[in-house]
Fold each of these.
Amino acid sequence: NGMLDALDACIMDHQFNCGSVAALERIKHPISVARRIMEKTPHVMLVGEGAQQFAVAQGFPLEPNKLSPDAEKAYREWLKTSEYKPVPNIENTGNKKVGPVGGPQNHDTIAMLTFDATGNLSGSCTTSGMGFKMRGRLGDSPIIGAGLFVDNEVGAAAATGQGEDVIRMAGAHTVVELMRQGLSPTAACRAAVERVAKIKGVSAKDIQVCFIAVNNQGQHGAFALQKGFSYAVCNAANQKQLLTCDYLLK
């Protein structure tokens, strides 16, 4: 309907404290609002107009309620067909026709997991969701247990990709529970991806789902449904690596 994308985010610490915001409009940093919900309220999730009111009360400025010229142009072009059919990992294809930052239909989720010097885990997950999505649509990113889950005794996990399919199998929570059963972070992520593929059947080839995980020993891993997913790792010495993870559909 030509309105600005609503934003979603969640955050969780090592003591099961968590905060989440969904369908947040005109606020630039939803993850910061999610943290305020965690720290300043007795609630876990605020949504829509109430979330915006809370954010403003906490001092977050309202952004202009209008599309940028590039976004307006992309929206008008999309209206010609009104078709939503994202291409998995389009940001890695080198296709320059899809618009800025990977194309208007393909803004990935940003998920982060931390293992600190005291051995405590935490995580966050934030997204703008699908481009041209139906107003009110939510994916997995703001849902504790789907887009993100942290259990300090076991590990932490987060997801990116087609949110509906992550929600269906409680993705991040599933990965953590698989680590509880003794699987490594990579093996747990793979088992969760295999479950997504089993649920989707032949249509699995049309989507992308990826999981990242870290266990309570600081070991990390990831696994994807399709080729093309990479994740970054940074240690206490600020040494950084960009790693390409293995994938299921070959």
Amino acid sequence: MANEEYKWFLRDEVVDAGLCTFCGACAAVCPNDRIEFREDGPALKEECPRNGQGACKDVCQRVVTFASKIGPNIFGFKAKPPALLGQYETLVAARATDPAIQEAGQDGGAVTALLSYCMDNGLIDGVIATGDAGKPSSRVVRSKDELLDSAGSKYSAIPVLSAIKDAGDITNAAVVGLPCHVYGIRKTQFFPGMTSHGFEVGENGEKIKVPNIAYVIGLFCTENFNYDKLAEFMKEKGVAISDVRRAVIHLDELVVTTDSDSYEFDLNELWNAGCVQEGCVICRDAVSKLSDISAGFMGSGKGWTTLMGRTAKGVELIQAAEKAGYLETKPDVDLHRIEEFAGLKMQRFKWELKRRLDEGKKVKFYWASDYPGVMGET
């Protein structure tokens, strides 16, 4: 039977509608390992015994975010109504004190320093993150050496959460990802269907063994790219994507650095070349609002990372890492710059939503449940 003939809710309502974010949550929770990620998105490898409507539907953020219900679980009684930057308790510029981490990490290596502190102090024994062995992929980081190897930003759509199913030997893990990964992991933690009966039992009678998610660190994000299309675009510009050592987005351009030079690519040109993931264009969150800590370059000077401590344990982690000498921080953050950054993404979302509606394309109002009292679609 051809793959397209298998019944699957997410293919019909999310993937084919150009809404999929490639977060990987669906593959992470499938107890029968039926879901694989291909160039054009997730797909069923075999027929689903749940008729295509199992736990994968429960955890998909593009069905419904469920953010208004998730918020009280992570913020407690301090949960507040939706806002452009989400809620946060602390806002600082930070960087690693270890020169090796500064060199390997992005914008001062603050995220790597936080994870290093967690590993050294037994708070976690693994990290679900993005690896970089040629073409970036999801991976489970189990050591400090692997942590340094995975440091830095990668601007291709990667199903990071799919690696959770390979982390059964880990007790406590941190997840590092983009806003889409944050929504996905929060739904695996707090969506009622998951919390009431846990992970589904597979055909072998067993549940997927997954670690406790101790910390969720979300990164700032404007958009993500299709790796192969980005590689082709850069090749036409005379740059081999395999030579790129560092990449960063500055509002309207992608800046990549090789061992010998640096190159700037206009984001509009990348959009017109079809490099941007279709599901990214209709995203509303630039700053990972449901994370414990949000991190990004926007708002801080060169060589520093902006950290937004959102939850109580996120704030405590920043303070503890600084006290232990893993981080140095300063209060000099340009909040207006971050608001401008997030506002541009929201404006783009509105343009894209109008375009899709005007053209009669399928749109799931997945964000409706960001607001208290609204459940959204199912």
